[in-house]
Amino acid sequence: MAVFARTVLLVDDNQSLRDGLACVLRDEGVETYEASRGDEALALVSRQQIHLAVLDLNLPDMTGVGIYNGLLRLWPKLPCIFMTAEASKPLVEEAWRLGPLGLLRKPFEVHVFRDLVRRAIAV
Asked: In the chain, where are the structural domains located?
């Protein structure tokens, strides 16, 4: 098992997906913070440093792109992984312009997620 001294923010309105991804990350020794909405995520990171953001593109209150733009104001070099089950082509293009580490289409293989995270935050 790899050991990381890093934290990851998981933002998705699907509780079971968040729980599953958090479990994968905890197995890797990664501390996780979770939010189901963009406003929750932004409030959380104003109080806690994170090393990677994993963001759903479609949330009830804002897009993952909007959240990431807010996160970048606090942490200018913060890496990001976007996820989506369905997103408009313009939103996907806007997400790619921000330079994420990846954009995962749901459902995705857990090992693909884990490998992206490992590359992003390995010490």
From this structure: 7-121
